[in-house]
Amino acid sequence: MNLHEQCLLRYLTHPDKLSYSTEILKLYNKILEQKFIVKNILANISMLNYTEEIKR
């Protein structure tokens, strides 16, 4: 069971804690977004800088 499923289950069993589950999902999504940026964008910038230095 992943985090989204756990949050949904928590909401279904305790609907009064919706804001808590929502905050957990927001935090989890933010972490995933940061990992994506580091993995895809920053890695490509490093490679671009490396190839630019070699061409000179």
Please describe what this structure looks like.
This protein is an all-alpha fold. It has two helices and no strands. Helix 1 runs antiparallel to helix 2. It is elongated. It starts with a helix and ends with a helix.
Q: Biggest sheet, open or closed, and with what strands and sense?
A: none
Which regions have little confidence, pLDDT < 50, spanning 5+ residues?
A: none
What quaternary form is this?
single chain
SS field, number of helical segments: 2
First CA to last CA: what distance?
Answer: 51 Å
Rg for CA atoms: 19 Å
Find the count of extended strands (DSSP E, 2+ residues).
0
The fraction of residues assigned to DSSP E strands is under 5%
Helix content: over 70%
Q: What is the overall pLDDT average? A: 75
3D shape: elongated
The helix-and-strand class reads mainly alpha
What string gives the helices and strands in order?
Answer: HH
